[in-house]
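Annotated sample (chain length 478).
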Amino acid sequence: MSPPIPYVNSADLHALLPTTVIAAAGLLALVVDLFMSAGRARRWIAVAIAAAGLVIAGVLTAQQYGHSYPAFGGAYMQGGFAVVLGEIAIFATLVSLGLGIGIGRDDQVAGTTAIVLWSTCGALLMAGAGNLMMIFLGLELLSLGLYCLCAMSVRSAARESGLKYLLLSSMASGFLLYGMALLFGGTGSVALAAISAAPPSPLIALGAGLFLVGIAFKLSLVPFHSWTPDVYEGAPLSVTAYMSVVTKAGALGVLGRFAYAALPPATANAILLPVWTVAAISMIVGNLAALQQIDMKRLLAYSGIGQVGYIVAAFAGQTPLGLRYAIFYLAAYTFMNLGAFAVVALMLKDADGSLGVGAFAGLAYRRPWLAAAMTFFLLSLAGLPPTAGFTGKILILASSVGAGYWWLSVLLIAGTAISVYVYFKIVRAMFVRVDEAHVRAERSTNPLPWISIAVCAAAVFVLGIYPLAPSDIIPLAK
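Output written by the structure step:
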């Protein structure tokens, strides 16, 4: 006799209420656009609807903090872990849409805005996923929208970006799905709790390894990072900023829950050692590659590879403090990275364009407030005080050393030292006086990035002097 199918109650639906609101906002933006006449008003209205939906979803998500609940029979885990990652994804989506007041032409903005919101729904599902099916559903919902968004530009590089991401991401999804199939074969269940309760076996170890390869691709960890700079460079700026945070938030949610709640304790360290190794390599390779970049999107792409290496290093040892500090650094990275993208957006007349490092030459004399903001964000990315980047790295160092992974701490320090040269070449260019006749004077007329800069700068400073690391974030999957 088959086990009874659990019925869906109001608590299950309430757990997914923020996701439902975001999905409905995307649908509403499409419907309203049908009745709009041609003009830029369509762009502002679509983004306004999305912003309203995201703010409402953010409030609803915050109300779930501290209230753990296994919704839909444990398929979705409501609680602190999902709440914190969900708030990060929601904030990043809100900022990204404002960088260019939507994505694409005026007649495309409603559609692209809806796709962004639905992709965010995928990230929220990944953050709370309690079984393999929910992980795959969230991952594909996130990725399918990004395939389209990366190509949403008139530039030929955008088409190449979308196609490259489609092909390589599909291959990574294949690894992930094959690993899930082996895990299901070894446990007879798709629940993450069943994996942790199963006796160690080669089938589970192989399945976990393939599963982690797919996650490493989504996180852009070396050697699965080669797609990142090309895709970031070709995609519109808003999409690049969105991918740099939201994709990482979703994938880190899956990695955290898998590492802390799914793997059998007896074999967890052996299975996860390759993950800590590629994280260590990413800290060095990402920053070394960033030294050679002259395009800001590519530079921030390689910077992100190094930064995510720091975050994953905090997971080493699966300690509760390591998890808290990883989430803290992800939040800090969200603010400092999106702040840097907002500065780039203000220096671009066309949101689909690209910006070379040379465009920052003499910026401190032309636009001093913008140069000051960019300097502050770069100091945080480099891990210098008094910023959240410095505090976050100190906490990760303490966590990794306390867990016995001192070699990760050594490589984190080495990667940080290299990154100082990466970011200070931009700072140096901003404070060197040049002939303005040789500087391209393009600038955006969009006021929204200024708001993002102010919010992100304040958050980076406050988190730097008062490191608020939430405690109720243990990713239970039982």
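Annotation: The CA atoms of residues 147 and 167 lie 9 Å apart.
Annotation: The beta strands are 69-71, 76-78.
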